[in-house]
Amino acid sequence: MIFREFKAEEDGWVTVFYTGTWRSSWDFILDAVQNIITDFRGNLQKVAYSDLAAQGAKDVDILAEVVSHGEKLRECGSLKTERGVLSAAGISAVMECPFQLVFFNQSATVRLDSPLKKFFDEHGEHVFDNYLNSVEIKAYCEGAVRNARNASAEDIQTALQ
């Protein structure tokens, strides 16, 4: 992902905008957010979707549903329908700080929000660059594996020619 913009608020909150390599499909977003939830390792605080990516659109909090399905997003009925926005928040075991990531469907935009400006002051504005690159790569790899598993022998033969 490409770092685009860093905004620090006076109240200590930070918003960082990134652009993904490609526009995000719903499948990619589910895989990316699943990776983030795995990183939160029991410190998941919020999972929400919105049907619209418009400013002021209402989030639908589905944390209870996600937890009831063992934190497996693809098992959640409310996420089987393609949505406009999906976000997850918690405390990262890898980054050792709280943050929220917001993915916008059919867009390359990803927004990171954190209440710890001090973390960015200590480590720099680009502190999440490698983390988000890893999330993006892993999500694309998981999609490729899923597509390969679902491919027929004929599909594979055609691809090899």
Supply the key terms:
single chain, alpha+beta, 7 strands, 161 residues, globular, 7-stranded antiparallel β-sheet
What does this structure look like?
The chain has 161 residues and is α+β, with helices and mostly antiparallel strands. Helix content is 36%, strand content 26%. The chain contains five helices and seven strands; from the N terminus they run ββαββαβββααα. The chain has helices at residues 26-40, 63-68, 117-123, 129-150, 153-160; strands at 2-8, 14-19, 44-50, 60-61, 85-91, 98-104, 109-114. A seven-stranded antiparallel β-sheet has the order 1-2-7-6-5-3-4. The longest helix is centred in the C-terminal third of the chain and has 22 residues, at 129-150.
The SSE order reads EEHEEHEEEHHH
Helix content: 25-40%
Structural class: alpha+beta
Relative strand content: 25-35%
Contiguous runs where pLDDT drops below 50 for at least 5 residues: none
How many individual helices? 5
Distance between the termini: 32 Å
Radius of gyration: 17 Å
Q: How many strand units?
A: 7
Average of the residue pLDDT scores: 92
Overall shape: it is globular
Query: How would a crystallographer describe the biggest sheet?
Result: 7 strands, antiparallel
Strand order of the largest sheet: 1-2-7-6-5-3-4
